[in-house]
Amino acid sequence: MAVADQGDQYDFASDEAKEMVADRERSWNSFTSAVVWGVGITVVLLLALLLFVA
């Protein structure tokens, strides 16, 4: 039987797939970092406007 001769080890995660996942993780980490900085800067600017304009 050809199926039985293949063995029971399968490598579903190729090197290319691992690189793609690592790239997406880096992109996600960059995105979340940018969102946190953006929210922080927005809050600081709004508080500055509240203190100096009002």
TrEMBL record:
Which Gene3D superfamilies does the UniProt entry name for this protein?
Bacterial aa3 type cytochrome c oxidase subunit IV
Q: Which of UniProt's keywords are assigned here? A: Membrane, Transmembrane, Transmembrane helix
Q: Would you say which domain of life the source belongs to?
A: Bacteria
Spell out the InterPro entries in the cross-references: Cyt-C_aa3_sf
- Transmembrane ranges, per UniProt, are 34-53
Q: This chain belongs to which protein, by name?
A: Aa3-type cytochrome c oxidase subunit IV
- Which species is listed as the source? Craurococcus roseus
Q: What is the lineage of its organism?
A: Bacteria, Pseudomonadati, Pseudomonadota, Alphaproteobacteria, Acetobacterales
